[in-house]
Amino acid sequence: MLHVSFYTYPAFLVVAAVVAGLLVGSFLNVVIHRLPKMLERQWRTECADLAGTPLAPAARYDLIAPRSACPKCGSKITAARNIPLVSYLVLRGRCANCREPISPRYPVVEAVSGALAGYIAWRYGLSSALFGALIFTWAMIALTFIDLDTFYLPDNITLPLLWAGLLFNTSATFVDLRSAVIGAVAGYLALWSVFWAFKFATGKEGMGYGDFKLLAAIGAWLGWKMLPLVILLSSVVGAVVGIALIVFAKHAREKPIPFGPYLAVAGLIALFWGEQINRRYLDLF
């Protein structure tokens, strides 16, 4: 019955996708905040074990426990105060207990996640492409904000995303499997080559290995033909933002800028409008 309703009344699907996107966006905020801390804990534990000085067992800390709390006063956030967007608006962007401001990052992530989910539902309808595009988009959102905060692009997200892209394209959901496999390999090697060329020329590392894996994942989802567009868009946006930060925000030239967010945004643009952009470009010639 629900299946029939979504086909008969597509607006229901869009509304359901927006609601799901808001809920997932709330969870993405947890992932963005906690996953880097979880990885750092894991790395410290592994280093201590290798050094022969194991650490004392720490309290559980993962994506489920402990419960979310105000970073200022430590008060637990109840379910009623954790409704995506609504709670932030009702509380006027402040903690219900100590009245300290809540970062606008949280509603922004929720709103972006919900809005893009609604657009994807409208664009693809009830199909495998809908679920694939949602997975790809939500992963891009999480990676964007994690990289902005920490300069990490965790393997915990990029590698499963790569394999998921190949699996979805076994049935040619977005591109044929051959194009997806070549896209994964070419995506990794493209930035890997740039990394080593820059390192040999300057003696410095210009980007992290996570960028290689992210572009490989994008190639696995969208195919090798989209990679030139993704690289061009991410480079142009990165250059514009970098120059703006240096000129207007007094960002030091030697201070690194994460490249992952630009790859993620370019990947989303390529997912939604890449074919039209490529077609118009080719029409010029």
Describe this structure in words.
By secondary structure, this protein is mostly helical. 69% of the residues lie in helices and 0% in strands. It contains ten helices and no strands. It has helices at residues 2-8, 10-50, 86-90, 105-124, 128-150, 155-168, 177-202, 209-222, 227-248, 260-283. α5 runs antiparallel to α6, α8 packs across α10 and α9 crosses α10. The longest helix has 41 residues, at 10-50. The chain is globular. The N and C termini lie far apart (50 Å). The mean pLDDT is 89.
Largest sheet composition = none
Number of H/I helices: 10
Order of helices and strands: HHHHHHHHHH
Mean pLDDT: 89
Q: Roughly what fraction of the amino acids lie in strands?
A: under 5%
Number of strands: 0
Radius of gyration: 21 Å
SS-derived structural category: mainly alpha
Task: Provide the helix percentage.
Answer: 55-70%
Annotate the secondary structure layout:
Blueprint lengths: L1 H7 L1 H41 L35 H5 L14 H20 L3 H23 L4 H14 L8 H26 L6 H14 L4 H22 L11 H24 L2
Helix pairs in contact: 1-2, 2-4, 2-5, 4-5, 5-6, 5-10, 6-8, 7-8, 8-10, 9-10
What keywords describe this structure?
285 residues; mainly alpha; globular
Condensed summary:
The chain has helices at residues 2-8, 10-50, 86-90, 105-124, 128-150, 155-168, 177-202, 209-222, 227-248, 260-283.
